[in-house]
Amino acid sequence: MLTVKNLHVSRDGSEILRGIDFEVKAGEVHAIMGPNGSGKSTLAQVLAGREGYQVTQGSVQYEGQDLLALQPEERARAGIFLGFQYPVEIPGVSIALFLKTGLNATRKHRGLPELDAMEFLSLVRDKMKLMKMDEAFLTRAINEGFSGGEKKRNEILQMAVLEPRLAILDETDSGLDIDALQVVAGGVNGMRSPQRAIVLVTHYQRLLNYIKPDRVHVLSQGRIVKSGGPELALELEGRGYGWLESELQAV
Amino acid sequence: MNVQQSWQEPDPEHVSLALAGHDVPWVVDARQSAFERFKAHGFPSRREEEWKYTDVSVLSRRASLLPDNIPPDAPSEAALYAWMLSQQNVHLMVFINGHYSPELSCPGNLGPGVRLESFADMLDDAAELPQALFDQQHEHTVFDALNTAFSTDGAVLRLAPGARLEMPVYLLFIASGYGVSIYPRNIVVAGAGAQATVVEHYLGMVDAHNFTDSTTQLELGAGAMIEHCKLLQEGSAAYHLAGIHADLAADSRFISHSFALGSRLARNDITVRLSEPGGHCTLNGLYLLNGRQHADHHTRIDHLAPSCVSREYYRGVLDGESRGVFSGKVTVHPGAVKTDAHQSNHNLLLSREAEVDTKPQLEIFADDVRCTHGATVGQLDDDSLFYLRSRGLDAETARSMLIYGFANEIIERVPVPELRNRIADLVLDRLSQGDSIKELL
User: Fold this and answer.
1) Which A residues, 74 through 133, put their C-beta within 8 Å of a C-beta on chain B?
2) What is the DSSP string of B183-233?
3) For the segment B141-155, what is each residue's pLDDT rounded down to a tens digit?
4) Assessment of whether the complete model's pTM goes beyond 0.90
5) CB distance B402–A90 less than 8 Å?
6) What is this model's ipTM?
7) Can you give the C-alpha Rg of chain A in angstroms?
8) Domain-by-domain residue ranges, chain B?
């Protein structure tokens, strides 16, 4: 589904990603871990099409297309979803309007009929129940005055409504208490399917107690320095990131 | 003929003699002395600090400033109904070029203690209007003086103590014809504890060089609450100059909404006197301009008594070569302790040629007060645009949605649902992808 080859990315002249290679197949859950400043969020942003980064080398193929040639909205319509580490507050625009606009743009692109107000409501109500969200949420302005947990739940709600093929969740666990973490993890697990891939970008292993990844990659200084199964995450939890970096330097 | 001659040398058929109250001596005196004051000053020039950014010199070159003495024909009903709020939800008074049209109006059942009358009728019929409501103390700008000299008609709403109007009073001012000068005068007097909502809707049916000079004065008794909404939707060549002046007694509450969406040039001078303790005023405003439109809001809030609260939320969206002006002055007078004042003015500039001048001013002459203000001028936020696009909205729709959201924060404060929706539609009509957003609202 997603093939990243030798990806180099700079911002304002300094190189942040220095040759990333990995492949995600449909049905898989990957975790990308690494210390602060290793380039995890940059990778997530570049895959979603954030402007301001320069891809200097390498390629990204998504379902046979050159992903990097697509606008952010084209990627979204093609099934890519980015769960933001810091969801943006947009006062004056209700969540209902925002979701409906995004969903109908995506459905149109997929050749599906657009949903009317009633159909949309019944769809979104079901998803909100799963996320233990009150329906009053829909009339609130996007993320305005939301707690950290509400913002993250809102991201997962959007994912559930948009039903992406590839979901990239950037630090979705940060700032969550244990109850909110369980709800969010439940939402993500509910989305797992053989047709869908999920990439979790996270600093801590904690989220992986609830969402079991198929593959774990460790990012350090703009490179994937180690890949492995779920046991790698546990090892990182026990030993920190330090041993990997010193191991690297030894090589 | 200039305005001076026409006033000084009226011929028998002349319009000035046909103005309301022309056979009531004190009314004639009030008009004449107001005109003298106007004449002594003339139209404001840009050398005056308060008019630095707004050029009204073109008005002095008008062929005539006199109002029509005969009301024109009513516009066709279809055109009228396309814009007006539903009659069954309001107490409606329609004015055409400043003249009341009883045929088009429907004040309805107002209930006990509420009187809604034509200003002209009250001046004519044995001068029923209390003299104090038509004197110099209601004059804050030279345009108020000109209005007093020439005001043709308007609405007078009087609420007895405790009277409450459930439905809004809806005053629809239609500019019809070419090159006309229009002088509405509205008066709201709310007794202690009375409550009402008043909507002033200025609608230009044609793109003619019409000139409107309106004055609205409001007196709020102790504990009264008045919500005042003004929607400016004049034709694209129209000049609109207006004064809105409120005086608040103890514990009363005044909420003003000003939407400047249409006209070539608009200037609103809004003044609030918090005369007694416990008064509360909120001034909301939105100007949405394109082409060569110009909108200027000058607000002035005087905290004259202790423990009053004032809030001001003004926003502007400027495209094309338009220009927006906001000047907000808050004065905390000696003795007005425990004043709580906050003012904000945020502007979105959508083109390089658009310009905004924002000038918050605080003058504090009392201790123990809390006063804050903030003003910003900026463009659409890149992070917000990316967030929307990452959910499948194309760039243009994302831009429209952000502008709509920015404006909607002011629009959603409007208490009358139908008016709120009307304004939202007017804003969306201006946005490139507004139609697709409208479908989803």
Assistant:
1) 75-77, 81-82, 84, 87-88, 90-93, 97-106, 109
2) -BEEEEEE-TT-EEEEEEEEEESS----EEEEEEEEEE-TT-EEEEEEEEE
3) 999 999 999 999 999
4) yes
5) yes
6) 0.95
7) 18
8) 3-276, 380-441
